[in-house]
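subagent[fold] <- orchestrator: predict structure for attached chain, return tokens only, no commentary.
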Amino acid sequence: MGGGGTLISAQADPAIRAAVPLAPWNGSPTFSGITVPTLFIACQNDGIAPVTNHASPMYNSIPASTHKSYLSIAGADHFCANAASGGSGQVGKFVVAFFKRFLDGDTRYDPWVCGASKPAVTSVINEVRSTCPF
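subagent[fold] -> orchestrator:
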């Protein structure tokens, strides 16, 4: 429950500066107390934590006033984010960009953080949601 644990921690401790739940599973899909920037990495064909029961409602439960993004890796199973090379390397690129943006405050990463719908990555990412621009 690493992804679910990430969300529990982000909700419990606002001192956390950014959160990236990977293929999250949790018995509770409600995280309305999260105020830290959060990037969800979901796996489209996740049989362990199906996105319709976990990542999607969790993402939706975080207030729109919170910086948040949701990327679903096309055709992937629960382990799509176990390596930076997941999703043909897109998982690592987006996670690093998200952390650079929100941990280092480096706005040069905004095009990556908010650019998941660009044609170069749409064959790997089947769904994108975000509160961009940040």
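orchestrator: received. Logging for downstream: The CA atoms of residues 4 and 25 lie 5 Å apart. The two ends are 28 Å apart (CA to CA).
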